[in-house]
Design brief:
Blueprint lengths: L1 E6 L5 H14 L3 E6 L2 H13 L7 E5 L4 E2 L28 E5 L11 H9 L5 H18 L4 H10 L4 E4 L6 H12 L3 E5 L2 H8 L4 E4 L9 H5 L8 E4 L2 H13 L7
Parallel strand pairs: 1-2, 1-4, 2-3, 5-6, 5-7, 7-8, 8-9
Helix pairs in contact: 1-2, 1-7, 3-4
Length: 258
């Protein structure tokens, strides 16, 4: 039996997709127990049931929450493997469709730094406090790669001649399910780095992705650019480059009117 504990920075949908893909690529005839919190367990089960194709030589179970002191296991980085095949079916549409998945400020909640500090220094916190920590941490991450509402509306206006699917970034499985269906019908993904960008990558949908400016601090862009197909995904670390890539992509289709 292999036990996988939840790591401190192991919060995202993309992290889980990377992990399940890595396991399916590298393991055979094993049993795995995941000691995740309730939220991560629900999300994991959803991905295994609806996104990642089964590998029958791996049996997966979910146990009680246990945190690992390791911040992130480097073997799960996608550079070490390709995504495992997906259950999602791409849907053809008559009209050119674009998925718009930009985080913007109206979704931001100021993080409670006292909770973050308390969580980092002690495991003896209540369930309510842990959920508040998780929510604050998630919204803080969104804040770091967000667009203003005016910027978001600018892109909506830029894309008005196309069929646009706007992503719902609320943390509900129904929202996630609807987002995945929309991405599967899209010809182009325009959005922030995050879980939906991973779904677009699984489906090999051409993408223009904004990596927040502080991504360089975490060396994200250098980690991913070595294995991303630049003909499929354009990675942008500043908003000007992001705009130019979107502009050029749409101008090439002859339907751009600013």
């Amino acid at each position: 039996m292999i036990y996988v504990r939840q790591e401190k920075s192991f919060l995202g949908l993309g992290d889980l997709l990377n992990m399940f893909s890595y396991e399916n690529r590298t393991l055979n005839n094993v049993k795995i127990t995941y000691n995740f919190d309730e939220h991560r367990t629900i999300l994991s089960k959803f991905l295994l049931e609806n996104v990642i194709k089964d590998k029958y030589s791996i049996e997966r179970f979910f146990g009680n929450f246990v945190e690992n002191e390791i911040k992130f296991n480097p073997k799960y980085k996608l550079i070490n493997h390709e995504y495992w095949p997906s259950k999602i079916k791409k849907i053809s549409t008559k009209r050119f469709s674009i998925c718009l998945s930009l985080y913007h400020y109206k979704e931001i909640k100021k993080p409670n730094l006292d909770i973050l500090k308390k969580y980092d220094n002690s495991n003896n916190i209540s369930r309510k406090e842990f959920l508040e920590y998780k929510e604050n941490c998630t919204f803080y991450k969104i804040y770091n790669k967000a667009f203003t509402t005016n910027e978001y509306n600018f892109y909506l206006n830029m894309l008005r001649n196309f069929q646009v699917f706007e992503m719902d970034h609320r943390f509900y499985l129904t929202s996630l399910s609807n987002n995945i269906k929309s991405i599967s019908k899209s010809n182009l993904f325009v959005g922030s780095d995050g879980g939906m960008a991973h779904i677009a990558r699984i489906l090999k949908i051409p993408s223009i992705i904004y990596f927040r400016d502080d991504s360089m601090e975490f060396n994200y862009i250098n980690n991913v650019k070595n294995y991303v197909d630049s003909n499929l995904q354009k990675l942008c670390t500043d908003k000007n480059t992001f705009f130019n890539e979107v502009f050029q992509s749409l101008e090439d289709r002859g339907k751009l009117e600013l």
